[in-house]
Amino acid sequence: MRKKYDISEILLVSGYFNTDIEDIKFYFRVHYLGEYLYMDETCYIWTYKVMIYNGYDYDIKVLGREWNMVDCRGVKTKVIDRDILGDHPILKPSEIFEYESVIYGSSDSAIIYGYYDFLNILDNRRFSVDIPSISLDTPRSLKEIS
């Protein structure tokens, strides 16, 4: 979904944290859904919403992303998506693309990090933007930390 916002409006949205890299701003909100049993193994589920703001003065295309997840036991998982939910959205200057997705983990605490790939529509140049670590926690794992 593409929307045009005044960027100051985004900063008022509660529950988001942002990262400002180059002229692209990312806003993330993570929500723990719960756990379920699958083949005698407990799985943990989080939803996350991402908003990508194009601060450049030209159009950019989102080509894909790579997430790396490391859980509290050190188990590593890599997810490579060469699209965003089946799409390669093009963002005009000052436009935001937002989407929601789900991530599954085998422990009640993990971090994810990675990058997004983009295309500068103006000169057909590809570039990547790193995403810093995002914490995935459950209410139980937060209690154990405090």
UniProtKB/TrEMBL annotation:
Signal peptide: none annotated. One of its GO terms (biological process) is error-free translesion synthesis. This is ApaG domain-containing protein. It comes from Candidatus Xenolissoclinum pacificiensis L6. Residues 18-143 form the ApaG domain. Pfam families: DUF525 (PF04379). Gene3D superfamilies: ApaG domain (2.60.40.1470). PANTHER family: F-BOX ONLY PROTEIN 3, POLYMERASE DELTA-INTERACTING PROTEIN 2.
